[in-house]
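Review form for a predicted model. The reviewer records the input and the model, then writes brief findings.
Reviewer: anonymous (R2)
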Amino acid sequence: MLKYPCLVLDHDDTVVQSEKTIGYPFFCRILAEYRPGKSISFQDYVHDCHDYGFAEMCRRRFAFTPQEQREEYLGWMEYVKTHIPAPFPEIGDVIRRQKAEGGLVCVVSHSSVQNITRDYEVHFGVQPDAIYGWDYPEHQRKPNPYPLEDIMRRYNMKAKDMLIVDDMKLAWQMAQPVGVEVAFAAWGKTEFPELSREMREICNYSFDSPKELENFLFE
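Model under review:
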């Protein structure tokens, strides 16, 4: 019997290594176009996304308009067509084993359905059972609890049946209203000790590698 019938996975820097190699470089390109002379360090970019989320970071730090945010999204969708992030070692074992043993794998992410499905096909040869990504309206995206509530409705799940695995605080904020446990994917934040300390304090579990997560889930 599975410890958690439903595994709720983040995508960027939980399953694939994308923040440093794709997300940040593309945003620097957009910033040079939309706000010439402005810049942001990788450290500040990660910290702001951790605290506020990407959309709110764009509004707070650079006063992006709704139209600029739409254009940024369209440009990013084109960019990721030709930039495929590498998966973290052994995360595929977790995903395939969860599916093979009859469990659900749901993705709640700020990536889009298009690149999530591509990454799963390329790297793992399986697809998530459900994806709640950037394609949803902002009020239904993480950290709003809507994705978890919808999973519960669609699949007749209770909070105790689900485990969120994520590298960012928005997942913890999403989980609190519905009582779902959160595991910190510490392997995605090895360069950020302050964020890691915070996540270890607030999350139910912390794992330094996908192998540790696998042992916990299937011991």
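Findings: The chain has ten helices and eight strands.
Further findings: Strands lie at 6-9, 16-17, 86-87, 104-108, 130-132, 162-166, 181-185, 205-207.
Recommendation: see findings above.
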